[in-house]
Amino acid sequence: DKFAFVSDSSLPAKPFSYVYSTLSSRLGSDFCIFPSGEWADVPSSSGYGLEIAIKSHQWVTLNRAHAEKSWELWRTGTLHNFMPYFRMNAIPMLPSNNSYADQRNYGCLDEFWYMIALFGTLHQPNAQQAQDLHLPMFTGSTMRISHNAGWQGECDTFVLWSKYLYIGGNNPFNSFYSTLDAASTPHGGNFARPGWWDTISTHGLRAIRHSPFLFVRKFIDNPRLADGPNFVQAYVANVLW
User: Fold this and answer.
1) Are 222 and 19 in contact (CB under 8 A)?
2) Which residues in the chain show pLDDT less than 50?
3) How many CB atoms lie within 10 A of CB 194?
4) What torsion, rounded to 10 degrees, do the Cα atoms 11, 150, 60, 107 define?
5) Hey, which of 60, 72, 126, 216 has its CA 20 to 30 A from 23?
């Protein structure tokens, strides 16, 4: 069993049989890890170095063991104090003032809670020293801990964060984005909010089907098909069959 978190503005990017086959073939859980500039950090309680919380997309896919553990940990109060402990959103956010190990921490509880509840926080004596960390039952296995780490893990859901669209390394978001025609380019959002679609073409729908993603977001209600009369029929024909 797999437990996939999707939002009300998400759509499947593949037929159900493909999604089911892909997720059921993976033993671990899928987390799409933000570039390290988005991670949260506070001085370590040991008095030396930093304690770091890794930030991921909310749209995670958990295996049964992780889902059951998450349920039990949340039910019993584990890490309910995360937001004040890491002083989340305590400093007004600006586009240019968020970098790795700067103790300026932004985000929502569900962007951090699952990772730290299941795998713990990192204790980094020297923030400038890179290391590789193996996480059991984490799809992708090895996590790169460094000031310039890009997207990591397994990103099941496409979402457009303009700030990180062109970041180097393994970047499935830019790879997919580059296949879209002009009529299918989503609105860019901003440094705090992701982009969205209100219009897409048949070419864009086919690009979704051939992308590496299992889900895509954000779509507004009743989006417009740029080159046809009916978005729903075109989406079913080009993406879900």
Assistant:
1) no
2) none
3) 19
4) -100
5) 72
Q: Which two tokens stand for residue 218?
A: 């954000």
Phi, psi of 240 (to 5 degrees): -100, 0
Gap between the Cα atoms of 154 and 167, Å rounded: 16
| 130 close to 144: Cβ distance less than 8 angstroms | yes
The beta-strand segments (E) located in the chain are: 2-4, 11-12, 32-33, 40-43, 50-53, 61-63, 122-124, 131-134, 142-145, 152-153, 157-158, 197-200, 215-216, 219-225
Which of 94, 5, 12 has its CA nearest to residue 58?
5
Q: How many CA atoms lie within 13 A of 25 on its CB side?
A: 6
Main-chain phi, psi angles of 2, to 5 degrees: -130, 145
Distance in Å from the first CA to the final CA of the chain: 23
- With a CB cutoff of 8 Å and minimum separation 6, the contacts of 80 are 74
In this predicted model, what pLDDT tens digit does every residue of 178-216 receive, in sequence order? 999 999 999 999 888 899 999 999 999 999 999 999 999
